[in-house]
Amino acid sequence: MKKILTAVLVFLILNESLSAQNIAATNRLLDSLFKPFNNKNSPGYAITIVKDGKTIIKKDYGMASIEFGVPFAHNTIVRIPYSEGREFVSVAAAMMENQGILTLNDKVRKYFAKLPSWSEPVTIQDLLNHSSGFCDEWATLVLTQAEMANRLDRSQFMEFLYNQPAPQVEPGKGYMYSNSDFGLLRLILEKACGKNLSVYMNEKIFTPIGMNHTKLGTNKEEVIPYHAFSYDHNGEGKYTVWMRDKTSPGGNYWMLTSAADLEKWAASLTDKNSVIAKAIQRLKQNARPIPVLKGINYPFGNKLKQSGNYEIITHEGVSGYSWLTQVPAAGISIICLGNEHAPYADKIDVATEFLLYGKAEKILLRKFPSTPVPISTAELQKYAGIYRELSPTGFSSAMERKSYTEMKVIDDSLFWQYSKEDLFPLVYVGNGIFKDPDYANWVVFTQPHPDSPMRAEAHKQHGIPDIYYWKKDTTTRRIYSKEFLNKLTGTYYSKHLDFYWRIILYEKGNLILKRPTVSDKVIEPGYDDEFDLAIQFHTDDETTGWIKFYFDDKAEPIYLNVRHGRLMHHRFDKVK
Fold it and tell me: Which is deepest, 53, 99, 161, 417, by most CB within 10 Å?
């Protein structure tokens, strides 16, 4: 018996020792991952790791205020953006259903009867699933202005929804990411419970579990103790204060919280008997995962993925701010919160894999050669041509990308014409692989069969790693006569937005879109019957939109339709 007890004691001591070693190794890993922020000139992060209900690691890096030298800490309060805040608002909806205040099957017109007739079948569940058909407030307003940060008050927001002439997707069946869905949801919840949603959430959700520094944001100009503003890297080794968070008094639903408070949220999620855990389970019952993303990505902010035998639940939005990662089978919760205006999901993925397997090799990036290899000009020519991106628009919608790129041979070298302004040299490193000499980017060309189109995989391994897929296309950019382009000029009117576009023909033969609130933009012929338009989400952030003109029996233009990843269609009628 004494030998058995001794053996058990040795086993326990050994496991405790191994556990201590793992904790020390994890601390070193975190120090390595967050090394760029372990100084007084960078924004900060707070990380907490919980194992089987016990906090095993707490780390703080960087500054809450670079200007005033205030370190970032676990009680530092930061803003969680809109898509990350959906989980909290969704939980409030499920809790109200449990209290008999509403049901998720309630029709939205029950609460706002002036919503358009086409929205009659739309339910609260459709708002939660982004299958309502309502326009995205900001993604539509960028047709009239150059900033998604512009504001609508409540009456303007509701008028925007009331005046929408047709659904963006089929209600209850389609999918399109829309901030308006959760903006409207917030207003419905307030009408149902008779309180400001911030008050309801404090009373029913946050205060009962001790999250005393968490709340639904209502005024971004409010003075809040321990609140840290976000910082944006300017690309030149310095940070600037990020002041362009979008907000709408009519439909906002962003959150304020701290890492210390999120530790309590994580504990509630792991307690199956808690009202919060039960609310999440209710939300999953009729949730429709985002159809175009790998794995299971619930629109309310939960992402499920498999790693070996483990299911990993990541609580994050569309921008990669994974503020909570949980592995139920391993009893692991990782809380991460910071004030850098940049995603950090990749760092938490590395830490999660390390905790599960004791190593991070499972997610190491594919290794490529970097040494230049000679190649003839004739051989280079087989890689030249127009390529179309194969992936859909991601979280935004099921809309197929219309993104083209060109590989061209110039002076015996291959260049990647990524955009009109960006031309990148590519150096051949063997086996159909080319490297960007300045960045950790590789392009891998393959041709499954001699008669099949050449394919290209662009492996981005700096910043946030990603892979982009392209296929060679025989499409060429359309060329139109000056006479035809002149037909397209005139004034176009959006009844929904009560806004005019004026299109003129520039002396150089380019169509120019003129708006009183946005700088002039060129409307360029695309690779099919649509035209390309650069749409500004922010003054330094553009996405591509597409314009298609429609004609009457006399071949005269009568209206145009504009679309992008978060706008399926928007009509402007020609009035002059």
Answer: 161
pLDDT tens digits, one per residue of 367-424: 999 999 999 999 999 999 999 887 666 678 877 767 788 999 999 999 999 877 789 9
192-200 contacts at long range (C-beta below 8 A, 24 or more positions apart) = 192/96, 192/101, 192/102, 192/111, 193/96, 193/101, 197/89, 197/92, 197/253, 200/92
Tokens for 139, please give them: 């993604």
Separation CA 107–CA 123 (nearest Å): 4
Q: Do residues 324 and 335 touch, judged by C-beta distance below 8 A?
A: yes
The pTM is what? Answer: 0.87
The alpha carbon dihedral of 108, 113, 116, 118 has a sign of: positive
Helix (H, G, I), strand (E, B) or coil at 245: coil
CA neighbor of 185 nearest in space, from 97, 81, 277, 303: 97
CATH top class, domain 377-473: mainly beta
How many angstroms separate the CA atoms of 287 and 104, rounded? 11
CA–CA dist 259, 333 (Å, integer)? 12
Q: What is the CATH number of domain 77-133+168-287?
A: 3.40.710.10
Domain ranges of the chain: 77-133+168-287, 377-473, 482-574
| pLDDT given for residue 6 in this prediction | 46
- HEC profile for 338-378? ECECCCCHHHHHHHHHHHHHCCCHHHCCCCCCCCCCCCCHH
Measured CA to CA, the distance from residue 88 to residue 300 in angstroms comes to 9
DSSP β-ladder status, 404-410 and 385-389: antiparallel
Task: Tell me how far the alpha carbon of residue 368 is from its chain's centroid.
Answer: 28
Query: What span, in angstroms and rounded, lies between the C-alpha atoms of 94 and 97?
Result: 5
Compute CA distances 12 → 8, 19, 21, whole Å: 6, 10, 14
Give counts: helices (H), strands (E), the chain: 12, 30
Read off the tokens for 567. Answer: 């706008």
User: Which contacts of 115-118 are long-range, i.e. CB under 8 A and separated by 24 or more positions?
Assistant: 115/161, 115/162, 116/161, 116/162, 116/163, 116/164, 116/165, 118/166, 118/167, 118/171
Runs of H (alpha helix) within 194-338: 197-201, 259-270, 275-285
* Phi, psi values for residue 258, rounded to 5°: -130, 165
The values of phi and psi at residue 364, to 5°, are -65, 145
Task: State the architecture of 482-574 in CATH terms.
Answer: Beta Barrel (2.40)
Rounded CA separation 289/484 (Å): 44
Task: Tell me which residue of 141, 140, 122, 142 sits closest to 132, measured CA to CA.
Answer: 122
Please give the single-letter amino acid code of residue 457.
E
pLDDT tens digits, one per residue of 236-292: 778 999 877 666 655 566 899 999 999 999 999 999 999 999 999 999 999 998 887
